[in-house]
Amino acid sequence: MKDGSMQYRYENFGGIIAGQDPPFLAYVDRDYMRQLGLKGSSLWETADESIGLLSAPTEVHFSITNRCSAGCDHCYMEAGQADDNELDTDTFKKALDVLAEMKVFHVALGGGDALERNDLFEVAAYAREKGIVPNLTISGINLTDDIARQMHGIFGQVNVSVDGLGSHYGIFRGKDLFAHADKALDRLTREGVSTGINCVLGRENFEMLEDLFAYASEKKLNEIEFLGLKPSGRGRHVYMQQRTTDAQNAALTPKLAELSEKYGITAKIDCSFVPMLCYHNPPREVLESMATYGCEAGNVLLGARSDGSISGCSFLPDSGISIFDLPDKYGDPQTFSIFRDWTSKAPQPCCDCDYLDICKGGCHGVAQFVSGSFEMPDPDCPFVVDHLNKDSSDG
Ligand code: SF4
Ligand code: SF4
Description:
By secondary structure, the protein is α/β, with parallel strands linked by helices. It contains 15 helices and 14 strands. The chain has two domains: 2-45, no CATH class; 59-344, Aldolase class I (TIM Barrel, Alpha-Beta Barrel), CATH 3.20.20. The protein has helices spanning 30-35, 89-101, 120-129, 145-151, 178-190, 209-218, 239-242, 246-263, 274-278, 284-289, 326-329, 337-340, 356-359, 364-371, 382-394; strands spanning 2-3, 6-11, 14-20, 23-29, 59-63, 106-110, 133-138, 158-161, 195-201, 223-228, 266-269, 301-304, 309-311, 318-322. A ten-stranded mixed sheet has the order 11-10-9-8-7-6-5-12-13-14, covered by helices on one side. Strands 1-2-3-4 form a four-stranded antiparallel sheet. Helix 2 packs parallel to helix 3 and helix 6 runs parallel beside helix 8. The mean pLDDT is 92. One iron/sulfur cluster (SF4) binds next to helix 14.
């Protein structure tokens, strides 16, 4: 997989290339792969060069432990106690062997609190050795100067969860751990670790976005990644009261663009906010060139729990597949078919949407929670809201 500092794997349309300095991941066609001196594989024997089901995910979100002493109110993993059958170090390494064999590019290690596992560095170093870049998300509670020092060169990116500043930090969490997160960001930047913020966005902290950008700029952070609140785990109990409003969803993209420019901080959004981006009619080529995608559960992205069970993404139910069976099951047409085949049966308004093949109907986890079915469109998409409002005003 390695070619100098660049990594690659073949796909029917050409391949996927990735690098670390600067970090990038790009889908390229067969000609581009040839220009890189890569001669091709049996995947190129087909005339179909469309981008559909990949040969493997590019990224796996791996909860390395479900242990967490913070116990936040909105935790999508319902973290607290360790999972029964949490993988031990050797078995975790074997799981990474499986992902390396499938040529997965990134693992996003998280929890629970990944720092509550004392073999975190051993496992992360093993991922590196296997050509997989480990990234990490932490609350900051257990980060010491010494641990921050060790992170340099191991993790591609370490993000600290910060949903708001000062007393607003605990909007979803139900507790104020801001001082820990603040100290963790200082420790990481001091050690030269590529560092950013993960911010779960809901209706209350939406109004404080500018404060967060100003803070990130002052701390000289790389990025803020905005994650939609998810109705999974304990998040189910707060979702309906705390999710962003329809007006905020419609205003999200211009607001992030304005603040990103003003403060010189990269603003990223997670897959669940892609409908809010599409609503502003961005050129498709730009989205494609930046590998922007909506719901890629079960294809580009997989979730894995600390017992090795796999789901379409971290917010979706257990698929019943173990990570050790993934190489056999991944290509099976039945595997994750409800998500992979969603666009072929998309209802209105998604079936007429110009962005359907990019967005893929928004967050199916949200749709299932709010509407009772994975087959419904995402009710938080502003196009869907407009469509429903039009239907009701048409009487
Ligand atoms: S209408 Fe459907 S496909 Fe289009 S942006 Fe909204 S959720 Fe995505
Ligand atoms: S269901 Fe899809 S859009 Fe929602 S979080 Fe999972 S991958 Fe993202």
